[in-house]
Specification:
Chain lengths: ~450, ~140
């Protein structure tokens, strides 16, 4: 007799008519549980109670939900008392400013008018919404320019000298050498000025010889102190512009007042020639709002399109190339002996060179470079390796010994066929049959054949 | 009276009367970059001219095969080709290999069991049961 589980044995004992069950091999789970001698689950709550809680919620959950709702309603009421359907400013831990939409409940905020139609409402996820909320990820502008600047050896010499002069001047002035990487407009005059500066090293001490007294000051002042200073300078310029605009407005108002007085004196009805003051104010407000928006968004988001950024980069690269081309060569090449003992200086020079040209040195080369000449040798264009076929001796072999032929490039079977004159026949036949002449027809295959 | 042997027309044999070198073309392939071609490049600079002058009946071509080991390839009158890889070899060793290809016939190499070969028929003639001394049964 096979061994039965306890539950099944109990079931058999409990059943009044066990014959029907004894014949069947299957006992349903409900029956097993119903007649089980031990509790099904040693839970605090019975099964149906737990089922009820999972469907309708437990008393604890109900209390928590009520509390949460109450707090939410309280918060909405507070906002409504403040008069607020406006955006709430919020600053996160990283100092970023956000505008959060206020929670509005039409039952509390009586002044809030619910929309009855879709028209005019913001649709999230549409093309327009994406265009409006473009976070600038596509238009990311990195530190390195996307394109590399091709320079001759003489131009590399000038560029490295210019960067070295800037960095070393900053270091001598006690400024942070990393300020050299802050963005600033290119000025050819600065390049011309720095070309005349001589760098000398005596007993490990680097000495800069400036052609004029104010050269050092000019070079140092050309580099902004820090990003903050850069922003401050921009803000100052904006303030000055605003002041100038205000003065111009005052002057215009005075002129207008004089004109009005003059017209009244003559008894002629006065007609303002320019736009009414209200309109001007509105425009000014709109501009101010736009500026404010830009101020909020500018540090985080670049609203320019990829095309605009590409065009700006091209222009910047052209400016750099022009500056390098137009600037003079260093007075002598003694500056190449300058040692790069200070890692900060070396890194600042390399970063600036990368920023200007897009060329980056491999880390081992960067580490092993101990002088400016090492950097120059690493950046300068290496001569192409000589080829045997290009040697004069190999060129003249055919003249001296007629049975020698020297080919400068690899010879393929096509060359052999061409030599004996059958290639044109093969080629024509391949074209007639619509087959590739060389290579294959796979995508991106290296083929020169026309594909019909 | 025994039959006289049939007189056969002289068959042409290379080297009898005239000799045609079987190697008609030698290709020298090298790489400008690879170190295994160093000896080959030196050979091409220093030895090739003399070799080609000494063998005017052979067409010599020099062409690069970038990123490959240096190879000598001989083409023969019988239409076959023989190639020898000369990687890391010295110029003198390469000259030996070039001479080997120059002297080769183009045929496949075979084990020589009978060193003497002759195209001449036997001077004794073909054995015939009806010639010579007749056996009396």
């Amino acid at each position: 007799m096979p061994r039965l589980p306890i539950s099944e044995q109990a079931l058999r004992l409990a059943l009044t008519r066990p014959s029907t069950f004894a014949q069947s091999n299957y006992v349903c789970r409900t029956c097993i549980r119903q007649y089980h001698p031990t509790p099904v689950l040693r839970a605090e709550l019975p099964f149906w109670k737990r089922l009820q809680h999972s469907i309708f919620g437990s008393p604890e959950q109900k209390v928590a939900t009520e509390k949460r709702e109450e707090a939410h309603q309280k918060h909405i009421q507070e906002l409504a008392d403040k008069g607020g359907t406006e955006m709430q400013p919020y600053t996160d831990n990283e100092g970023r400013k956000w505008q959060i939409a206020a929670v509005v409940d039409p039952s509390i905020n009586k002044q809030y008018v619910q929309a009855q139609r879709w028209d005019g409402l913001q649709w999230i996820g549409t093309k327009e919404w994406v265009a409006l909320n473009n976070d600038g990820k596509e238009a990311y502008v990195g530190f390195n320019p996307r394109r590399k600047l091709d320079l001759t050896n003489a131009q590399w010499n000038r560029l490295l000298h210019h960067v070295a002069v800037e960095v070393l001047t900053l270091a001598q002035a006690g400024r942070d050498v990393n300020a050299v990487h802050l963005e600033r407009p290119l000025n050819v005059e600065e390049w011309m000025r720095s070309a005349r500066v001589q760098i000398k090293e005596t007993n490990g001490v680097i000495e800069l010889q400036f052609p004029t007294e104010d050269t050092q000051e000019l070079i140092v002042n050309a580099v902004p102190q820090s990003l903050a200073e850069e922003i401050m300078i921009a803000a100052k310029q904006a303030e000055e512009a605003a002041e100038a605009a205000a003065e111009a407005e005052k002057a215009a108002a005075a002129v207008e007042e004089a004109a009005r007085a003059d017209a009244e004196a003559k008894g002629i009805p006065y007609e303002p020639a320019e736009a009414p003051l209200e309109k001007v104010e509105e425009e000014a407000e709109a501009e101010a709002e736009a500026e404010a928006e830009e101020e909020v968004e500018a540090p985080f988001v670049d609203r320019r399109s990829a095309k605009e950024i590409s065009a700006a980069e091209k222009l910047y690269m052209r400016q750099i190339r022009d500056a390098v081309r137009r600037s003079a060569s260093p007075v002598n090449n003694e500056w190449l002996r300058t040692s790069l003992a200070a890692p900060a200086v070396k890194l600042a020079i390399l970063k600036r060179v990368t920023q200007l040209t897009g060329h980056r040195l491999p880390d081992p080369v960067m580490t092993s470079a101990t002088s400016m000449s090492d950097l120059y040798l690493a950046f300068k264009i290496k001569p192409q390796p000589k080829k045997l076929a290009d040697e004069r001796r190999m060129h003249n072999l055919n003249l001296d010994v007629p049975n020698i032929t020297v080919h400068p490039v690899r010879q393929t079977p096509i060359h052999k066929d061409r030599e004996v004159g059958r290639w044109k026949v093969i080629e024509q036949e391949l074209i007639n049959k619509g087959l590739p002449i060389t290579g294959s027809r796979y995508q991106h295959a290296k083929t020169t054949s026309p594909i019909f | 009276m025994p039959l006289t042997a049939l007189r056969s027309v002289a068959k042409p044999q290379n080297g009898v009367g005239a000799f045609i070198l079987q190697c008609k073309r030698l290709d020298f392939h090298y790489c400008d970059w690879a170190g295994s071609s160093r000896g080959m490049n030196a050979f091409l600079k220093s030895h090739l001219e003399a070799f080609a002058r000494a063998n005017p009946q052979i067409e010599v071509t020099v062409s690069p095969r970038p990123g490959r080991h240096p190879v000598l390839r001989g083409s023969y009158v019988n239409g076959k080709e023989k190639s020898i890889c000369v990687r890391n070899m010295e110029p003198n060793q390469i000259l030996e290999k070039a001479t080997l290809l120059r002297n080769a016939s183009g045929e496949k190499l075979k084990r020589v069991t009978r060193p003497v070969k002759s195209l001449n028929e036997s001077v004794r003639g073909i054995w015939d049961p009806f010639h010579g001394q007749k056996y009396q049964v």
